[in-house]
Amino acid sequence: MTSEQDRWSRVKGRLRTSVGEDVYTSWFARMDLEGVQEESVRLSVPTRFLKSWIQAHYAERVLSCWQAELPEVHRIDLTVRSAVRPVVQPKEAPAPVEARRMDGRPAPELRSTATAPVSATHDALGGSPLDPRLTFASFVVGRANTLAHAAARQVAEGRRGDPVMFNPLYIHAGVGLGKTHLLQAVTWAGNSGSERKVLYLTAEKFMYGFVAALKTQTALAFKEALRGIDVLVIDDLQFLQGKSTQAEFCHTLNALIDAGRQVVIAADRPPSDLESLDDRVRSRLAGGLVVEMGSLGEDLRLGILKSRVAAARAHHASFDVPEEVLNYLARTITHNGRDLEGAINRLLAHSKLNNQPVTLEMAEREVRDLIRPQEPKRIKIEDIQRVVARQYNVSRSDLLSSRRTANVVRPRQVAMYLAKTLTLRSLPEIGRRFGGRDHTTVLHAVRKIEALVSKDTALSEEVESLKRQLQE
Ligand SMILES: Nc1ncnc2c1ncn2[C@@H]1O[C@H](COP(=O)(O)OP(=O)(O)OP(=O)(O)O)[C@@H](O)[C@H]1O
Question: Is 435 helix (H, G, I), strand (E, B) or coil?
């Protein structure tokens, strides 16, 4: 088990180096290993869209990363896994071959074959599957998510006819930081009474629902069904693709908001960074409440681990994870909630299958591949603008304005230069974020500062100091 886990994490490491951090996070962070069989490797991703994108653009790359570790591999089978996460269940006889799982999820022999019933309303409307475990009761609140949690609760507790406070509520966060959990919690809570209809759709489901409805000429019925609900919850909006789907999404959004219905959205980036959406949709999205959930602090990670252990103990009363192991996991598995869940599942699988208590030594061995080196901080254009404005004593709006006085022009050029060198944003995108400037203006600024730093020591030191402040 361990050697396959190690191999999988080495393959992921190769992929990450080969495609770069940003591409890796966008397309591969949710890829799981399902199994290796002779010449073929089975991988899974959560959406059809991810599957087709990876197949179209990265199939060769994934294969060659595998071959570098395991030359006999000649095939990659990519599948779409269910959105409903497996539930840990007791008393099922372990099948030896199943124990070879190497991802962070529970071994299949510990999964339930039946899922708890989903809300009837939600089902009838054709919503995406809901995971019964993702409720407010199991959501741990900490510094990173206090505001998002409070806003989500407020939405969930609203009653039909109540004034809508923030619309849409837009929650964004990196991979595995609890967006889906919070959105599904809103759906469960909202649908628990019969008064309101809450519909949870992944952007993908919205897309395929719409396309399928168009094909069968029932688009009108689909639109009507959507508009007949009280709260529309859309997850993973960054996957919304295609002009007609976007136009339809835009209409639906407008129709719901104008009718005083609540819309809740989650994505892995703020509205301004959803580059494939048109400006009107972006500004409508940004017009409600936009909340970011930050990375999980150590306290929050410890809370999540404890809540996972408590949930597992409901089915496996003898399962116990000593405090020192929990502290060790909270300290070392820093990346995201999914890895924390994976760690507890592995300890559970291991202790059940081998009938052994969980010890620190076992934990160190079992979760080795989940401990990732600290990644360099992701720098945002807004941070650059803020830090540069502070350094040069101008305001951020000066940087975005059309003013051309020298005290503003140089800081603006420095900020554009930093945006180009410290982020992966394109020149047109940077231009847009600097008050709608043309990409040639950005290019000019970048070249200008590049030329200046090579001969002007004072400027070069200033730029270095700005970089340090941004990377802290
Ligand atoms: N605050 C939290 N309390 C309890 N569990 C959490 C919390 N944050 C994250 N988790 C857990 O971490 C795992 C990943 O969370 P989730 O799937 O909600 O992330 P996500 O932000 O939607 O990720 P993705 O971008 O991949 O869709 C889940 O098992 C979730 O229950």
Answer: coil
- Superfamily of structural domain 1-82: DnaA, N-terminal domain (3.30.300.180)
Tell me which CATH code domain 298-374 carries.
Answer: 1.10.8.60
Superfamily the domain 381-471 falls into: DnaA protein, C-terminal DNA-binding domain (1.10.1750.10)
CATH class of the structural domain 120-292:
alpha beta
Ligand 1 pocket test: pick from 138, 146, 181 the residue with the most ligand atoms within 8 Å of its Cβ.
181
Domain boundaries, the chain: 1-82, 120-292, 298-374, 381-471
Interface predicted TM-score of the whole assembly (ipTM), two decimals: 0.98
- Segment 220-248 shows an average pLDDT of 83
**Ligand 1 atom closest to residue 139's alpha carbon, by position in its atom list:** 3
Give me the DSSP letters along 180-240.
HHHHHHHHHHHHSSSS--EEEEEHHHHHHHHHHHHHTT-HHHHHHHHHT-SEEEEE-GGG-
Of 175, 241, 209, the residue nearest 375 (C-alpha): 175
- Whose C-alpha lies nearest to ligand 1, atom 19? 176
Q: What is the pTM of this model?
A: 0.66
pLDDT at 368 over 70: yes
